[in-house]
Amino acid sequence: MSxxxxxxxxxxxxxxxxQRDGATLASLVSFGDGHxxxxxxxxxxxxDEIEGMLPPPYDExxxxxxxxxxxxxxxxxxxxxxxxxxxxxxxxxxxSSQKDENWGLLIMYAICVDLRRFAVIADKxxxxxxxxxxxxxxxxxxxxxxxxxxxxxxxxxxxETDTKRWGMLNLVNQLFKIYFPINKLHLCKPLIRAIxxxxxxxSFLLGQQVTYxxxxxxQAMFDSNYKSADENLTYSFVHxxxxxxxxxxxxxxxxxxxxxxxxxxxxxxxxxxxSLQQFSSIVRAVKQGNLLAFSSSLAEHEAFFVHCGIYxxxxxxxxxxxxxxFKKVFLLCGTHQLDLSLFLCVLRxxxxxxxxxxxxxxxxxxxxxxxxxxxxxxxQHLKLVVSKQNPFPPLSQQI
Length: 399
Description:
Elements: H1 6-18, H2 22-28, H3 47-53, H4 58-73, H5 77-97, H6 105-129, H7 136-153, H8 168-179, H9 188-196, H10 206-222, H11 226-239, H12 245-261, H13 268-273, H14 280-288, H15 291-300, H16 302-308, H17 311-315, H18 318-333, E1 337-339, H19 340-349, H20 357-369, E2 375-378, E3 383-386
Antiparallel strand pairs: 1-3, 2-3
Helix pairs in contact: 1-2, 2-6, 3-4, 4-5, 5-6, 5-7, 6-7, 6-8, 7-8, 8-9, 8-10, 10-11, 10-12, 11-12, 14-15, 14-18, 18-20
C-alpha cells in the first residue's frame, strides 16, 4: 500500500462507504496503516479531486486526513494536530447523524488514538520551542474525544447490536491516558460513574476492561481506597495477556504498594521475574521492622518511585514497619504490658532522633486504630497493654 495513488485510495474509501465497511474505513484513516507512506498522498492540494469522488461530509474528513499525512511526513506536528483535530470534529458530526447504526465506531477508535498520540508530540514540540500553554493540545484532544463519548453515551436505543454505547469504554480509556499524565484525575470520576452504571459494564472487550481496571485501580490508590485499588489492579494483572510482560510490569508497579499496604508482601521471585528489584530492599525493611533500612531504600530508589507516582504511597508503609518493629520489642520483653519508653528508645536508636514520648504514643495509637495491634494504651502508667490472644494479627503473605 506504500505506493498507493490518490485515485486508488479514494476509490477504496468510496467502496468502503458504499458497503458501510467500518473496519476498512478505519484502516484508511489510521496512521497505523501503510497508505500513510505513499508519496502520492503527501500533498495539501487535493480538495478538488476528493470533492469530486466522495460525498460530503466524508470528502471533508478525507481532505483533512490527507493534509495530516502531508504534515506528519514533513514533521510539522503543530499543523498535523490541527488537521487531526479537524478530522475528529468532522467525524463527530457524522457519528451524531448516524441515528440507527454504529458501524462508524471503529473509525472513531482509529482517529481518536492518532489524535491523542499527535497531541503528545505537538505539546512536546511546543514546549521545546517555549511557546504556547502546557498540555494545550492534549487538553484540546480530550475535549474532542469527550464530544464523541457524549454521543455514544446518549444513545439509549434498546438494541444492543447497533447502539453506540459499545464505544464508551474505548473512549474512556483514551481520556484516562490524557487525564493521568496531565494530573487532572478529578475529571476521571464522572467517566467512571458512566461506565459503572452502564448495562454493558461486564460485556466490553476484555482488552478494554483490562485497561479500564488498570486506571480505575490507580485512581482508587490515589484516593486511598486500597481495597478497590487491589480489586481493580488484580483483575487487570490476572487478565492481561500472559505475553504482555511490559504491561504486567506496569500494573505491578501500582499493585505491589497496594498489596503491601494491605499486608501482602511480594515474593522475591515475582520481583525478579518483572525486573522490579527496586522494591526488594523496601520489602525486606518492612518485614524486619528496620526503619533505617526503610528510609535508605526509599532514598536510594527515590527517582524511580517519584517518576511512577508511588513515592508518597510507599511512605505509608512506615506504619507497617513500626508494627513489625514493635512486635520484635514485644517478643523480646515477653510481657503483655510494655512501657512506651521502650518503644521510644528503640525508635531513637534507629535514627528517629527527634521522636518524643507523645509522638511515640500517637504511633502506637494509630497501630491500634488500624487494627495492626490488639490492645490499649494505659495513660496513667504510660504503657501499651496488648491482648493475650494474637496481639499482632498477621499481615504478610506471599502473592
